[in-house]
Amino acid sequence: MQKFRRVFEGIAKAGQSTDLNDFYTELFITQRVSGEVNKEHEVSLIETASRKPAKEETPIKLEDIFKPLPGQDQPSRTIMTTGVAGIGKTILTHKFTLDWAEGKANHDIHFTLPFTFRELNLLKEKEFSLMELLHHFFIQTKGIRRYDRFQVVIILDGLDECRLPLDFQNNPIWTNVTKSTSVDILLTNLIRGDLLPSARIWITTRPAAANQIPAECVDIVTEVRGFTDPQKEEYFRKRFREEPLASTIISHIKTSRSLHIIRGQQRLGFP
């Protein structure tokens, strides 16, 4: 709660922190029909997504991202969420973790363990066991030795920033949670389910980097589309508490088609 409740707006060191719950507005998340990587430029993806009527797609609520889909008996193990830069993928992982920590959602989960690939890159030349890696980032878990007895969610945020090889083809199978190896081998085995298969894995990425994970290792691919038109208004009314100011800003944005599209895709909480 302490780590994810406060969000800095603008430049982190100079900006003011804001309570995430004060301005968070639900984003439009939908299941990708195809697992293929979209190679269009992100500007084109924004324009294409803006033309898709939201009512034609079934939205997925953040708190339900691991819940079984219609026709499924079991929750999905590995979820990949794609979205263009600044769409709000990281904020989604923060909100998911915060809601869990505050007891608002996903009460069946015992541990939510959020990593970023930016942090994991720094350990590229080091070796850990999975237990050591978890303890390295989460000191409070040092007394736990059997994660398979608990329901664990591991978040891997920012695959597009990954500087590890993620060599799924050549990395050996690794199932021992107490034996040390490279972080790359730990991650590939964790993602494909050989290491800690009972854990649920959530990976976020920009679309162009999604193919770093083999399709057979991912159960469901979801996509963040940004704000729907009603969500845009809701966001601005939360962000600007003075009603006349919020209304003026909303009216101004609606007059510009390009600005209206961009605001639907803008980084949540960073106007």
UniProtKB/TrEMBL annotation:
<dbReference type="Pfam" id="PF05729">
    <property type="entry name" value="NACHT"/>
</dbReference>
<dbReference type="InterPro" id="IPR029495">
    <property type="entry name" value="NACHT-assoc"/>
</dbReference>
<dbReference type="Pfam" id="PF14484">
    <property type="entry name" value="FISNA"/>
</dbReference>
<dbReference type="InterPro" id="IPR027417">
    <property type="entry name" value="P-loop_NTPase"/>
</dbReference>
<dbReference type="InterPro" id="IPR051261">
    <property type="entry name" value="NLR"/>
</dbReference>
<dbReference type="InterPro" id="IPR007111">
    <property type="entry name" value="NACHT_NTPase"/>
</dbReference>
<keyword id="KW-0677">Repeat</keyword>
<feature type="domain" description="NACHT">
    <location>
        <begin position="77"/>
        <end position="209"/>
    </location>
</feature>
<keyword id="KW-0433">Leucine-rich repeat</keyword>
<protein>
    <recommendedName>
        <fullName>NACHT domain-containing protein</fullName>
    </recommendedName>
</protein>
